[in-house]
Every structure is written in structure tokens, then in C-alpha cells.
Design brief:
globular; DNA polymerase, domain 1; 13 helices; alpha/beta; Rossmann fold; 2 domains; single chain
Length: 304
């Protein structure tokens, strides 16, 4: 695999976190460039098995030829259904790297990056109907404000939403360059370097329904990971990390505190391995700047 295609983040730390049984069954819910999957396969024995999920055509084309690997070209939100179809009741571990693969940002035609002039697309899977252009041209002003506030954590989201609605009347916003020009025209020069990534991130999350998919997958994880098995998640957005942290603490992605039984004991399906999130070293960030916001959490499935 070419290192230019994708640089896996926290590779050793995350795969170590799975505590791999060479004959076990594991799931990589975000195959992406395949770096984590290849390391899992390297540590598995002949009887081991890996199921990898990714809806992207390029990821599928980049899969290794390994009889121990089953590749599922679908969103990981359907993990429980596909495992059931394969006759797999429980797995020994689940890994998810929630970041966008490097090749998505570097493929100009996909429209993920404001560095290139390209159609405003941002779909992880080309079979999906809605694009980022559909959102910026058709969402109502209050809906755009919600997307930029919640997913981009943009303070002046209302002003930006109003500007987009105004500009699209004169000319449809169909390219990354046109959107970038609108953002820059409504942002001070000092803020532009931070604002553009936030805007593009927010649209990408909305286009692909990333938070809803993550919520569904995490909720299903309590049923598909066997007691003693591991859940390993690398998150890059505060909302993603909060859901993962909540699930580990309470068993519910939307609740920070666990319910207690009549004796005051917490009833949680996971126990944290690392109390604080593991973050990339300065050396890794220097090699791969996209690792900067990564937070790794590892948990063991309890008997609850």
C-alpha cells in the first residue's frame, strides 16, 4: 500500500488496544486506506477473521487479497445486520477510526477539500444521492445555521448561513471554490484559516449522516462484542468523542452517568482501559498533521 494513499493514525496504540487473539474475530468499521486492517491481519493467525466495513469504492479497490478478510461495502451503521447474515453472534474486538482518509482530502474531484476547485460533493459513497451542493443550495437558513453550529462549532454560524442563502439566489453554489469565496468574504482574514476547515467538516458530516451512523453503530456494539472483548475508537470531533465517552461511562451514547442498581452499583456494559484519551505524539503529528485532533479510547466489554 502506498503511504501516499492514507497514513493510519495511532496505528500501534489502537491495534495494541484490541489485545488481539490470533484466532479471534474482529471488525474494522472504517477500512479507509486499510492501514489498521492490515496491521490486524498481520497479528491474526490462520484461524483469525476480520470483517471490514467501508462504503467507498476506492477503499474496496484497495483491499488486500486475504482469505481471512471479508469486506462489506456498506455503512457501518448496518453492522449488526451484516454480522447476523454472516452467522457471527459475537466478535472479539471492534476498531473504528472516525477520521476521513487522506486520499479523500487529496482527491480533488471528491470535493472534500477547499484546497482544490471541484464539484461540491463530499459523499463517502458515490451511490449516495445528496451532495454538499444540495445542502448549501436547498437547506433553509435555520437548517444551515444548525449544521454549522452543531457540526462545525462555528460561533457566527447565523451570519454565514444568511450569506449563503443570499449568494445562492444570484448564482448556484456548486463548487468548492465558490463556497470558499463566500466564506472568505464573510470572515476576517485572521479567522479564515480556522473557519474554512470547520465549514467543510460540518457539510461533510451532514452529507454522510455521520453522527447518526455513529450513534447507531456504538449502540449496537454492546450486543456484538463478547464479554472480555475490546472496543477501540479514534475520534476527531468533540461530538464523536463525547458519544464514545458516554457509552463507556454509562452504556448510553447520550448520557454521561450510568444507572445504578438498588445497591448503588453502576450498571455499564464497558469498562475503560485508558481513563484519559490517548493522543498522538508530537512526532506523529509532525509526520501527519491530520492526526492532531485524534483521541483514542479503549474499553473492555463487561459481563453486564
Amino acid at each position: 500500500m502506498s503511504t501516499e494513499y492514507h497514513i493510519p493514525v495511532l496505528l500501534k496504540e489502537s491495534v495494541d488496544g484490541l489485545d488481539i487473539n490470533p484466532s479471534g474475530t474482529y471488525v474494522d468499521v472504517t477500512f479507509g486506506g486499510g492501514g489498521h486492517s492490515r496491521e490486524i491481519l498481520r497479528r491474526l493467525g490462520a484461524e483469525g477473521r476480520l470483517i471490514a466495513f467501508d462504503q467507498d469504492e476506492q477503499a474496496y479497490a484497495n483491499r488486500p487479497d486475504d482469505k481471512r478478510l471479508t469486506f462489506v461495502r456498506h455503512n457501518f451503521r448496518y453492522i449488526a445486520q451484516f454480522l447476523r447474515y454472516m452467522g457471527i453472534d459475537k466478535v472479539d474486538g471492534l476498531l473504528g477510526d472516525l477520521g476521513v482518509s487522506s486520499h479523500h482530502f487529496d482527491a480533488a474531484e471528491r470535493g472534500f477539500s477547499f484546497r482544490f476547485d471541484a464539484p461540491l460533493d463530499m459523499r463517502m459513497g458515490q451511490g449516495m444521492e445528496r451532495t454538499a451542493a444540495d445542502i448549501v443550495n436547498n437547506y433553509a437558513e435555520d437548517e444551515l445555521k444548525r449544521v454549522f453550529t452543531v457540526y462545525g462549532e462555528i460561533a457566527n454560524a447565523g451570519r454565514l448561513a444568511k450569506a449563503i442563502v443570499r449568494e445562492r439566489v444570484a448564482k448556484s453554489i456548486d463548487t468548492t471554490t465558490r463556497l470558499r469565496e463566500i466564506v472568505e468574504a464573510n470572515t476576517s482574514k485572521n479567522e479564515q484559516s480556522k473557519m474554512l476547515p470547520k465549514v467543510f467538516q460540518a457539510l461533510r458530516i451532514e452529507v454522510n449522516g455521520e453522527m447518526d451512523a455513529l450513534r447507531e453503530m456504538l449502540t449496537r456494539s454492546t450486543d456484538i462484542i463478547r464479554p472480555g472483548g475490546r472496543m477501540v475508537i479514534i475520534a476527531y470531533h468533540s461530538l464523536e468523542d463525547r458519544m464514545v465517552k458516554n457509552l463507556i461511562r454509562s452504556g448510553n451514547v447520550d448520557k454521561a452517568n450510568a444507572e445504578q442498581d438498588i445497591y448503588g452499583h453502576s450498571q455499564t456494559p464497558f469498562e475503560a482501559v485508558n481513563r484519559k484519551a490517548i493522543v498522538p505524539s508530537d512526532e506523529e503529528i509532525e509526520r501527519n498533521s491530520r492526526a492532531r485532533s485524534a483521541k483514542l479510547r479503549i474499553a473492555v466489554r463487561t459481563n453486564f
